[in-house]
Amino acid sequence: MSIFEEVHDRKQTKSMKWDMLQKRFQSEDVIPMWVADMDFKAPEAVNQALIKRAEHGIYGYTVIDEDVTSSITDWVKNRHGWDIQADWLNYSPGVINTLHMALQAFTEPGDKIMIQTPVYTPFYNIIKVLDREVVKNPLIQQDDYYTIDFEDMEKKLASGVKAFILCSPHNPVGRVWTEEELRKMAELCLQYDAMIFSDEIHADLVFKGHKHLPIASLSEEIADKTITCMAPSKTFNLAGLQASYAVTPNKQNKQKLEKAFLRQGLNNSLNGMAITAMEAAYRHGGPWLEELLEVVESHTAYIKEMFAAHAPELKVIKSEGTYLVWVDCSQLNMDKKELNRFMIDKGRVGLNPGQDYGDEGDAFMRINVACPRATIEEGVQRIIHAVEAWRASTN
Question: What pLDDT, in 10s, does the model give residues 50-79?
Answer without folding.
Answer: 999 999 999 999 999 999 999 999 999 999
